[in-house]
Structures are given as structure tokens and as C-alpha cells.
């Protein structure tokens, strides 16, 4: 029996900077998970995934990540995605230095 589709966001890494990015509802890339589009329909998610994967001049490593809706936008359901959204872990730079990490 096939597993039921769970809500997802599309994520990747920005090609030049390497930052974690998310596809928003306008088809643009954002560095803020709260601005990402949450897909609840598998067909739409797959269609948008193809759109995102075609942007090879902008992003690399595009994939669907499990998420849930919250009052602040999509939230990850897996610790890997929660960790990725906080930025690099080797020292304080990027999102961490800019104060964009959520408590």
C-alpha cells in the first residue's frame, strides 16, 4: 500500500553562496522557511519540484522536505531540516551572525 502524501516544502542550496533556500508561492527562492510554500497536494509538489530542479543556474541539491503548517509558516518535521535552516554550524556567520535564527 502506498504511503499517504505528507505536506512538504521545496528546499535547495543557493549555487553561489551555499545558503539553504526554499521555494515560495511566487516561484522565487527565499532564505526564510516561514516564507516557503507548503505543498499539500502531491501532484502540485512534483510539478513545482521539476520547476525548481530546472533552475540550475541558481540552486543545487533541490528536494522535497517534510514540513507542517504553523502560525509562523511551515516548520520542519525532521531534525535535519531544523538544523539546516539555522545556517552553518562551524562558526557564527551567515544567518547566525545576522540574528535570523529562531529561538
What count of domains describes the coordinates?
Answer: 1
Give the ordered list of helices and strands.
EEEHEEHH
Helical content band: 10-25%
> Strand tally, please?
5
Mean pLDDT: 88
Strand order of the largest sheet: 3-2-1-4-5
Helix run count: 3
Percentage of residues in strands? 15-25%
**Structure classification:** alpha+beta
How would the global form be characterised? globular
Main sheet record: 5 strands, antiparallel
Describe the fold and architecture.
- The longest helix is centred in the middle third of the chain and has 12 residues, at 42-53.
- The protein has one domain.
- The chain has helices at residues 42-53, 79-84, 95-98; strands spanning 8-14, 20-23, 29-30, 59-68, 75-76.
- It has a five-stranded antiparallel β-sheet with strand order 3-2-1-4-5.
- Helices cover 21% and strands 24% of the residues.
- The chain is of the alpha+beta class and 103 residues long.
- The N and C termini lie far apart (39 Å).
- InterPro entries: DUF2849.
Could you give a quick summary of the protein structure above?
The protein has 103 residues and is α+β, with helices and mostly antiparallel strands. It is 21% helix and 24% strand.
Q: Which features would summarize this protein structure in a list?
A:
single chain, 103 residues, alpha+beta, 5-stranded antiparallel sheet, 5 strands, 21% helix, globular, DUF2849
